[in-house]
Design goal:
mainly alpha, Preprotein translocase SecY subunit, 2 domains, two-stranded antiparallel sheet, 5 strands
Length: about 350
Amino acid sequence: MSFKRCRHSFCGNIPNLYLFIGSHNYFSSVQIKLNIIHITKLILCIIQGMMMVRYLGRGDLAPAGDWKFAAAAVITMTAGTMFLVWMGEQIDEFRLGNGTSLILMVNILSRMPHAIRTVQRRFTWTLGSGDPSALGPEHVAVLALLFVFMIVAVVVITQAQRRVPMNHARRTREGFSHKSYLPLRVNMSGVIAIIFAQSIMMLPEYLRRLSYVGGIFEFFVPWKFFYVFSYMVLILFFSYFYTAIVFNPVEQANQFKQYGAFIPGIRPGRRTAEYLERIMNRITLAGAVFLAIIAVFPQMVSSGLKVEYAVASFFGGTSLLITVGVALDLVQRIESYMMMQAYEGFLKGGARIRGRR
């Protein structure tokens, strides 16, 4: 799969919505755009609240057919969600970080005390205990090492870049005076690819429960071979798809020509675009494979070490990616603020903490 094929197949006939809105007078006001976004969020909250109430009614967790309870539940969930949206916008306005991402990180970290209590409740000091419900010191040590290893791995992949050298056409006696590089992120899609893949995989699981179409989707039993294989393939696909949308090598090559920049040893224009596309194909594959592994790793930990999924969820998946990514961005913002106040970096010797780009 290449960027050119992906873009021609899925993006060739789709207009650029951002340019469309920005270049027409229909939505020239920024406030109108924000109002449209807020109304869309409100409608989605109401629809999801109604679906949640219906789901709870089927499971005997709420009174079925009681429209007063349904209306109160939908209004409560919608109001709470819109309050969180407002809180996230306030965080963005005061430049404290990405408001939505910070709220998600706090929500994820709020589940950590429950996971720790679960491990503590099953812990025993006996080595090699025959009780399958007990976690001995060797199990806890393996869990701790895996947790540290996964955090380090996510940090490395999140910050990993392929730096393409660039020269600018400013000749001096010593050659080209201005040299720089183009940073290309290995994991450009981030957590988006996993979220899209999870959304798609929910549909076969829902259809499998229906009596008249259930037989067709019997292969999509959660965390069986075909389910995991399809899940990982979707992550690979959406990684390439998202990267093909946000990064256009032809446009990047044209910008190089416009600003007098070029890659040493590569001709400007079409050759530069092909070179950038070839690099992105390779590094995106590495990032997509890592995302596929980290997406299924919590289930591997849960089944291999016999721990609850509430504990294993901190060893990968969207929880770990969001938490590490937001933490890196927050550290970068804090250090930038401190540098503006004429303070040194957090590390000794004036070293800098490299955040996400």
